Automatic annotation (TrEMBL):
The keyword Transcription regulation applies. GO terms for molecular function: DNA-binding transcription factor activity; transcription cis-regulatory region binding. Pfam families: TetR_N (PF00440). SUPFAM superfamilies: Homeodomain-like. This is Transcriptional regulator, TetR family. Residues 10-71 form the HTH tetR-type domain. It comes from Albimonas donghaensis.
Length: 202
């Protein structure tokens, strides 16, 4: 369970992120926004800003994403179908990161529009992939490292496709978008699975 200090830290980080995104919108992009502006608008000192983020691009992306501790523990201890448990873990991750749909769309748009924001975002996704690979390795201790790494990568790629589909209006909500992405991932897995020698084309 998170402490009061941790909750306050997350709240301040979220306020800085929301301020950075809002200023980028109001000023027609991130290029004319400075860390000093973000700090002043959020009501904190520049020094406090740098206690949270290294630059304005990092502020836009926000706190490094992670899986909720309880959901991660349930996944590691789970004995159900791996695919279903991975999807449940991704749903918990989406629920944790979800905030104002309009703000999330702006974040994704800034990620696509600004290479520096994209690099920060991609770095955080690599950290998240490593975290997920660690959880998968804990659950499947005897699996080959390549299997673990590829499974983590594909899981997060399904999440990315869901986010992009939702951002582009192909899905009204994140939940159905993840359902579609997960169905597609399952279909892809079946396409590359070894064919049954007795089946047509096998």
């Amino acid at each position: 369970m998170s402490t009061l200090r941790e909750r306050r830290r997350r709240q301040t980080a979220r306020e800085l992120q929301e301020t950075a995104i809002r200023l980028a919108r109001e000023r027609g992009g991130l290029d004319t926004v400075t860390t000093e502006m973000i700090a002043a608008e959020a009501g904190v000192s520049v020094r406090t800003f740098f206690n949270y983020f290294t630059n304005k691009e990092a502020a836009v992306v926000g706190d490094p994403p992670d899986f909720p501790q309880e959901a991660a523990a349930r996944f590691v201890a789970g004995r159900g179908a791996l695919s279903a448990d991975l999807k449940t873990l991704m749903q918990a991750h989406f629920a944790r990161m979800a905030f104002s749909p309009a703000l999330l769309r702006e974040l994704l748009a800034l990620t696509h529009a600004h290479p520096k924001v994209r690099r920060v975002h991609d770095g955080m996704l690599r950290d998240l992939r490593d975290r997920l690979a660690g959880l998968i390795e804990e659950r499947l201790s005897s699996r080959d490292p390549w299997t673990v790494a590829l499974l983590a990568t594909l899981t997060l790629e399904a999440g990315r496709l869901a986010l992009d589909a939702w951002k582009d209006g192909e899905a009204a909500e994140l939940g159905p978008a993840l359902d579609r992405a997960w169905d597609t991932l399952t279909e892809v897995a079946s396409l590359v699975a070894p064919a049954d020698p007795g089946a047509p084309g096998g």
